[in-house]
């Protein structure tokens, strides 16, 4: 009986230790992702000075907001004079709700891996130097409310996968080099046309069945 109780106590202690280490492991994963992102950026104004990769928890860093479980929920780096590029590792911020990187000088493409941020509410990348296509995988962001990609150098059609995001309330892709037609289905029915302007090859609104959605894209 004593041996059985000792074995039970040992298993209980092991379980407690495992559970107590879990938030630290998760914080390390998020910290590693943010450190990788920092390494990809040029930061002349030292706004990322507090991002110390030796700290276990990134919740102590400036411009980072966490929930009560020490999980990163906001990344607020708008108008911070940053240049560089986005990194696929940002997908490790599994509880991220707000990705605010507007009014910087970030270039390169939008990683398709951002579609794995299942809790994302706001994706604000406007006023940067982003190129390439809007990833169709962003249609998986079923909690997304705000999608602002205006004033970049994005090309290609507006992915029709975005029309399946019922939560989407604000879309702005003006001031790019998008082509094709403007969607009219789902949430796009209520998006004002000015949010698509200054895309010289973009036509619309789409006339269902009369024009290919990727017209002018060749």
Given the C-alpha coordinates, what overall shape results?
globular
Q: List the secondary-structure elements in sequence, H or E.
A: HEEEEEEEEEEEEE
Round the mean pLDDT to the nearest integer and report it. Answer: 88
State the total count of DSSP E strands. 13
> Into which percentage range does the β-strand content fall?
15-25%
| Protein structure class | alpha/beta
Query: Reading side by side through the largest sheet, how are the strands ordered?
Result: 1-4-6-8-10-12-13
In whole angstroms, the N-to-C terminal distance is: 78 Å
| Main sheet summary | 7 strands, mixed
Percentage of residues assigned to helices:
10-25%
Number of helices: 1
Name the poorly predicted regions: 10-25
The radius of gyration is: 21 Å
Protein name: Leucine-rich repeat protein 2
InterPro entries: LRR_dom_sf, LRR_N_plant-typ, LRR_R13L4/SHOC2-like
Keywords: Leucine-rich repeat, Repeat, Signal
Pfam family, one: LRR_14
